[in-house]
């Protein structure tokens, strides 16, 4: 029995922004230790539904403690959002990054603060560990990952030191070994930050393909959200937040057809609603919340451009209408196409 605890960041703010229809279906794309999921369930009505995703087997163990028929958990990456039919979800929540139990457990290999195996996988049952990748990658590859995903100015020096250590004494196996090598290669230190911080972040992001998966999940969310549905994303470092910010801004602008530059632009797919930071009180109680940024966007009722060519023939095009049960706007569609002209379960 471990004692690693987790304090959910922006708990009330995220759930307040997410839920607009208590009887609808929502997705918690990053279950973690279930803080947001439990709060969402407490706000849903009897006919509401919550589906959660997580790659970490320990998260699934925690999810098994939720005895609620309205809840389901899937052992998958949130890229599986693409499997949902279009326009079927009232909200998607993504709480990005690593949970406190993952950081605090040395056996997971995420942290340089305690020695442990150099793993860093969100799902330790699948894929290549950090140690395996560092034992095979060449100096250029290592430097590029640390530079691009860690925004580390000493990336080349760190990569050279890792390769030299590997040639002299064999592959790295522990977090303490990697942290020691980085400390020796980084010439100046940022106040209050361990010199290994950026390198550990970079390797973790790469090993788990975090930015690639985030890009896929964001793209899928626009298609699966129903009109008025909310996209709520909490980020903890600049690379994630920059990607989310640009994605929301891009889809909140009216797309311009370059082939007809003087034509009236099509309406935007998203409406940006808010950018929220933790309060001073929350940061004082949970210092790990200090870098969190939450962004909220709302789905408009515009059909995605890529679906227009796949809509049913004229005269059978779906029309938004209110459903008697909830008053929410729904998109009926003739079978076998879903509401935006896709086959049910197909990816955009």
How far apart lie the N and C ends?
42 Å
SS field, number of helical segments? 13
The whole-angstrom Rg is: 22 Å
Spatial arrangement of strands, main beta sheet: 3-2-1-4-5-7-6
SSE-based structural type: alpha/beta
SSE succession:
HEHEHEEHHHHHHHEHEHEHEE
Strand percentage: 5-15%
Shape: globular
- Find the count of extended strands (DSSP E, 2+ residues): 9
Contiguous low-pLDDT stretches (5 residues minimum) are 314-348
Q: What helical percentage do the residues reach? A: 25-40%
Mean pLDDT: 86
Largest sheet: 7 strands, mixed
Description of the molecule:
By secondary structure, the protein is α/β, with parallel strands linked by helices. Helices cover 36% and strands 14% of the residues. It has helices spanning 11-18, 35-43, 57-63, 100-104, 130-136, 139-150, 155-169, 175-185, 197-207, 210-224, 238-252, 280-285, 305-308, and strands at residues 25-28, 49-53, 71-74, 89-95, 225-235, 270-276, 293-299, 321-322, 329-330. The strands form two sheets. It has a seven-stranded mixed beta sheet with strand order 3-2-1-4-5-7-6, sandwiched between helices. Mean pLDDT is 86; it is low at 314-348.
